């Protein structure tokens, strides 16, 4: 029973990171109706920026905030400069552009910082949390920061004018324009928020998986699995889906001997395939019906 509780608690902490990645993917999907395949590489690049700031002598938490702000500005600028001109292009060209961005960030990080695996500091440490063997201090910190971000996002989208405008622009751009919402800028803000959330996820997971240009490849797949499980049209579903994927991954790796630690990524791929076959809109996604 203790092992079961430990795996659930650890999966919940890891799943909170997947939830952040899933949420950032859903935010971009709602804005442009395409998955951003470069989401993980953008988070990885931001994490390298944080490491560079720390190496320059900037305290961890100040570097954390600065990186989040830089990532927000970078995501907003990316939408204005590269994404917006291609919105009227074919879906194929947009997918090619996302793959090009993924390659650009990956190779750029390797060219600037090298491909050597680096350690990334944790402000929480890895001792048992409150003397318990269930989760470590870092896992508890990951969970706490992730839940805080999700709570702030909930308040922002539910009670602020800008958040409500972003929600309206994503749900019905035509009607939003008719009531004066600047849909283009709302989309850009969505990209900025998604980039900032991805940067936070990268900085929180880097002390566990270590920092190198390919560190977010697996995390991105888990995040996409969480988004598909919860529903690509539901931010709440993305959060719930990411946490469920974290728990499922831990449980399967512990109790199914064939999977172990090396085949855990297979669980995320199976979740994606199963949901696309059984319920393509996800657990919380809404069914969109268009009149033709």
UniProtKB/TrEMBL annotation:
InterPro entries: ABC_transp_permease, BCAA_transport_permease. It is a multi-pass membrane protein. The chain crosses the membrane at residues 12-33, 53-78, 90-114, 134-157, 191-212, 219-248, 254-278. It is found in: Cell membrane. Keywords: Amino-acid transport, Cell membrane, Membrane, Transmembrane, Transmembrane helix, Transport. The keyword Transmembrane applies. Belongs to the binding-protein-dependent transport system permease family. LivHM subfamily. This is Branched-chain amino acid ABC transporter permease. It comes from Variovorax ureilyticus.
């Amino acid at each position: 029973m203790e092992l079961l509780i430990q795996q659930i608690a650890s999966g919940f902490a890891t799943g909170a990171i997947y939830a952040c990645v899933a949420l950032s993917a859903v935010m971009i999907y709602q804005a442009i109706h395409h998955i951003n395949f470069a989401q993980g590489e953008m988070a990885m690049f931001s994490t390298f920026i944080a490491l560079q700031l720390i190496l320059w002598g900037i305290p961890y938490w100040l570097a954390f905030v600065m990186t989040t702000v830089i990532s927000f500005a970078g995501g907003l600028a990316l939408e204005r400069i590269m994404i917006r001109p291609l919105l009227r292009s074919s879906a194929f060209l947009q997918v090619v552009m996302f793959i090009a961005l993924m390659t650009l960030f990956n190779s750029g990080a390797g060219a600037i910082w090298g491909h050597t695996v680096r350690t990334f500091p944790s402000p929480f440490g890895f001792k048992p949390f409150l003397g318990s063997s269930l989760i470590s201090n870092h896992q508890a910190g990951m969970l706490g920061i992730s839940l805080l971000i999700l709570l702030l996002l909930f308040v922002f989208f539910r009670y602020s004018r800008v958040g409500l405008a972003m929600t309206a622009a994503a749900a019905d751009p035509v009607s939003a324009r008719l009531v004066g919402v600047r849909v283009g800028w709302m989309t850009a803000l969505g990209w900025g928020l998604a980039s900032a959330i991805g940067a936070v996820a990268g900085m929180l997971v880097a002390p566990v998986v270590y920092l190198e240009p390919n560190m977010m490849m697996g995390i991105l797949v888990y995040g996409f699995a969480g988004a598909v499980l919860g529903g690509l049209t539901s931010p709440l579903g993305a959060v719930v889906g990411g946490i469920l994927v974290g728990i499922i991954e831990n449980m399967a790796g512990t109790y199914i001997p064939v999977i172990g630690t090396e085949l855990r990524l297979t669980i995320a791929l199976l979740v994606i395939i199963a949901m696309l076959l059984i319920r393509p809109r996800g657990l919380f996604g809404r069914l969109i019906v268009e009149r033709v």
